[in-house]
C-alpha cells in the first residue's frame, strides 16, 4: 500500500480550521470540499490516460484524454458525501457509485446499509472518499467490496487518519494495488475509537447533528 501524506501549508491551514470545534457546519462543508480538490490533485497522479491528436487554432498537436472505462468515485455515506463535489470538480467525467456504512460506536464494527455500484468493476480505477480513517474497519470493508467486484486499483482519499487504521489497512490490503492519500496523519485513537487530535465526528460536523 502506498501512503501519501500531504505536506502543504494551505492544506494544514484548512485542516486547522476544520479541527476547531468552533467552526460552524457551513464553513466545515466548504473547507471539506476545498481540501478534497487539493488532495485529489495528488490522488489522480496515476489516473489512466491515452494519447489524442487535436488541432489548435494554429497547429496539430498531441495531448492526453482520460481513458475508458471512466474512473469510478465512491463516497462512503454519510461523511464521504461531503467530499464528492470537491472530487467531481476535478474529474467531472467520473462515474459516481455509493456505499452507505456506519460504524457501531460500541463495537467499532462497520456495517453496510446501502450499496449502489456498477456490478462489474473489472478494469476500473476507483477513488474512495471518506474523511476519517480511524480503526480502518469501514474503509477496509469498502476496499474489499470494490476488489470483489473486479476493480484493478483503489485510491482512498481521507482528510485525517490514525496510525492504527493505516496499519490495519496495510495488513488487510496486502498484495493489492491500493494508494492512500491523507491530509494529515494524526497521533492515535482514543479509547472510544476517535482520532486524536482529530476533528470529532465528521458526519455530525458536516450535517449539523450532535
Ligand atoms: O475507521 P473506522 O473506525 O471504521 O471509522 C471511520 C468511519 O467513521 C465515520 O463514519 P460513521 O460510522 O460515523 O458514519 P457517518 O458518516 O454516517 O457519520 C467515518 O466517516 C468513517 O466511515
Ligand atoms: O474520529 C473519528 C473516528 C471515526 N469517525 C469520525 O467521524 N471521527
Ligand atoms: Mg459519524
From TrEMBL:
Q: Which domain of life is it from?
A: Bacteria
Q: Where does 5-phospho-alpha-D-ribose 1-diphosphate bind?
A: 78, 103, 130-138, 201
Q: Give the cofactors, semicolon-separated.
A: Mg(2+)
Pathway where this protein functions: Pyrimidine metabolism; UMP biosynthesis via salvage pathway; UMP from uracil: step 1/1
**GO MF annotations in UniProt:** GTP binding; magnesium ion binding; uracil phosphoribosyltransferase activity
Positions of uracil binding: 195, 200-202
The record's cofactor note says: Binds 1 Mg(2+) ion per subunit. The magnesium is bound as Mg-PRPP.
Q: What class of enzyme is it?
A: transferase
What chemistry does it catalyse, as a reaction equation?
UMP + diphosphate = 5-phospho-alpha-D-ribose 1-diphosphate + uracil
Any keyword Chaperone? no
Which one Pfam family would you cite for this protein?
Answer: UPRTase
What EC designation does it have?
2.4.2.9
What are the recorded Gene Ontology BP terms? UMP salvage; uracil salvage
Regulation of its function: Allosterically activated by GTP.
- Name a GO CC annotation attached to this entry: cytoplasm
Q: Record's family?
A: Belongs to the UPRTase family.
Q: Which protein, by its recorded name, is this? A: Uracil phosphoribosyltransferase
Q: Which organism is it from?
A: Subtercola vilae
